[in-house]
């Protein structure tokens, strides 16, 4: 999801209609967007664009393009007039292994209001961040054309090169920019990975920018006074830089700019050819109407499909019986398969008008045997008067170790936790229950709780998920047999013979703690909780309890779920 | 009371109470509790014996006393608004109406009310928006101010003088019911006639066996008293809600499926056609496991097919994502970030036709607050049949909206998931809360299904039940779903 901000009145102006927020929101759904918030005092709409695959929608012009199509005000692929220019970019062969591709265009007579500049910056930032994979795959630069002389050089430059980066007053070494400039610190790792410095230079030696880090403070500053701009996209993937430039050109065209192309001269190490950008070519995709109708559950005729696709800003080039050749707008990158066109048709028809059809897949439903088994255990424990709790499986390591007097930390740890409180996956449940008791010392006793829930185990590099059941009882007077009698009755109801084998466990009192064994295999622990543990958790009541691993109870059908 | 000389039989505790009240002539029941050291229940049990013999009377009185509201507390601390305004004007001589707010921190409504009050008291004049003093050196509403202080400090009975404060919402009137016991015949007068009554409290097993229960009188209980606190064993409210959702899905013919919490990126992302550099796969969007970092990929055939789907579309006719797919990335271990990974696993050897669902714990690196959890439940599922269409999908969603959410109406919107096409968002219209997003769905892209040898369309759907539960139970803080609060666990309504 991508969130953008836009002016409500400016959007209505461009749409040429006065629409209430609700209606605008409804129309925006055709552009896979929705209004998240409207800040009336600032005339600001916060719009969530749900698709990460449609960078063309990350500016109001893109959404409006879609709405005008739905209204039928504009049909098919928007036309974009391109004029020739003498501008040329020469690409350095040394860039072949780092950031080899560039695409440029010129936009003249642009009316750059403060709002338009902000919108273009927002679009660039969002594209750089998301579609450009944080500038790694592609990044955008915009410049004041009047200061640039052709041919422009896109080259690798010596580290002793200096220029004034945006927001600075003095020239800085490239290395210094990477170390000290805000953008250098954020994106410097990309350039460091290249092992050399890419730079864009005007024919007279003036620095345009160091892609993908930062523009220069003079040429690379676009203001309300700027009328003619150079737009440039560099990156590691040719298709990506071309389509990103197409999106920018379409947007600037919609804003009323005159667009000119730029010639890119590649060395043979990269492409061995010259490309004139932007490359406004319409890609084709063939669809079989029979397949589409079967997929959607519709009975559409070619004529209707063409009409709907025109609404979605596509052109239909050819219709031969059921085969249709569809032209894709050059700013769209998301059409991979005919199912993508099928979706466009469905959206154009309006989901709410297609008419849901009734169920026809008749199957027998059922719970998994392991869920049924878990439910049996839950029913037994509820019957003992215990109250079920659900605790977090993603928890604090302290809860699983220090709080219950345990040293081993044989549980799955997260390498990127947001907070220590949620940084490991539990390998047992009873410590969570002790934590619950510690939070309720002001409530009346007895407190009898249980949880039947998932845990994750880690053994010899393998991990699996399984279900355990844990039970805890805290009261002014309680002892081992209060837990034992519950376990005993549960095991009887589960037709399971078990033995208690005295053991030592740091969470429980010595001599009042046992392993629960079934068929000679340890499947759980029972005991009176160690006063040290109670004191640590500020539970001032004797506490007893047990935990069993349900997959080890033969009469139940709980299974270990291995990850691999 | 009858005048004869007959004995009056009273239980020992009733005699004790009788003596105490006789001494005081009149006694409030709480005081009796203090003096007698008997519980309220015991007192209530014994009083009827005394009343029956017309030894005392019981009268209820309602006592009204005052307490400060939140606004009252503020007015007590900062002075009443009219006093603040009056004092300000006294100090500044003249203040423009518009500027009042600059000097006095209070909302506009309150300021207006203050000025209104002063005008009514004829204490100020307003000319061309300038306020000045008319009555010099007057202590405006001093008495009311003093009442506020008094109420804060002690228990003040309600009187008409306080009514302006009540009307202004500064003071609440609290009604307290008091029971007074008034002696009609003092103990000393009939002392000789009072006899102790021996009663039996409990019926015993022995009394039943030897028949002695026939000769014994069992004490009558006060049936109006509060019983001791008691909590039944019960299922956690949210767990129970999940059980009912499962029940509904099973009734609709869905088979349950489950998967592991620690998941391979392969199942969580790659099999679902999410490109390896897709932003949703970043560090900030999915929890990664640090020990071990990698797992073993499934059967090579599937891995190769998925790889091709990403690189060139496999045999689907898709262009694919056109990049070099890295098996190492795919074998990274993460915490299941979306329930769809369970559906992805089910694609192996999928029966056609079939319908599946899972309710699974999913994990995202969000900062935990009232609207975000680091772990949450997702309801997900698939429906597969060679004849199924997008309009059938809309039909399935409609059923979920009506049968599972209990809504009266639902709407659809285009949506985006990397693994479905078309994708749709489902909103339901709740009679009380309006439109809420309830789910999402779509038809799995061929790049998702074909690598597992599936040729039929597979509908994938998901429902947001955390949200639904919160709406139904009026919960505003999502953390309550995993609440530790015993009070909530014990006492949340079940219906």
TrEMBL record, chain A:
Keywords for this protein: Aminoacyl-tRNA synthetase, ATP-binding, Cytoplasm, Ligase, Magnesium, Metal-binding, Nucleotide-binding, Protein biosynthesis
Annotated compartments: Cytoplasm
Top-level taxon of origin: Archaea
Cofactor(s) needed: Mg(2+)
Any one of the GO CC terms: phenylalanine-tRNA ligase complex
UniProt xrefs under PROSITE patterns: B5
Molecular function (Gene Ontology), one example: RNA binding
Chief subcellular location: cytoplasm
Similarity section: Belongs to the phenylalanyl-tRNA synthetase beta subunit family. Type 2 subfamily.
Quaternary state and interactors: Tetramer of two alpha and two beta subunits.
Protein name: Phenylalanine--tRNA ligase beta subunit
UniProt organism field: Candidatus Heimdallarchaeum aukensis
Gene coding for it: pheT
From TrEMBL, chain B:
E.C. code: 6.1.1.20
Alphabetized Pfam families for the sequence: tRNA-synt_2d
Keyword Translocase: no
Gene Ontology molecular function terms on file: ATP binding; metal ion binding; phenylalanine-tRNA ligase activity; tRNA binding
Example of a GO biological process term: phenylalanyl-tRNA aminoacylation
Entry's Gene Ontology cellular component terms: cytoplasm
Aminoacyl-transfer RNA synthetases class-II family profile domain span: 245-471
Catalytic class of the enzyme: ligase
Localisation: Cytoplasm
Keywords: Aminoacyl-tRNA synthetase, ATP-binding, Cytoplasm, Ligase, Magnesium, Metal-binding, Nucleotide-binding, Protein biosynthesis
Record SUPFAM superfamilies: Class II aaRS and biotin synthetases
Protein family membership: Belongs to the class-II aminoacyl-tRNA synthetase family. Phe-tRNA synthetase alpha subunit type 2 subfamily.
Name the record gives this protein: phenylalanine--tRNA ligase
Organism this protein belongs to: Candidatus Heimdallarchaeum aukensis
Taxon lineage: Archaea, Promethearchaeati, Candidatus Heimdallarchaeota, Candidatus Heimdallarchaeia (ex Rinke et al. 2021) (nom. nud.), Candidatus Heimdallarchaeales
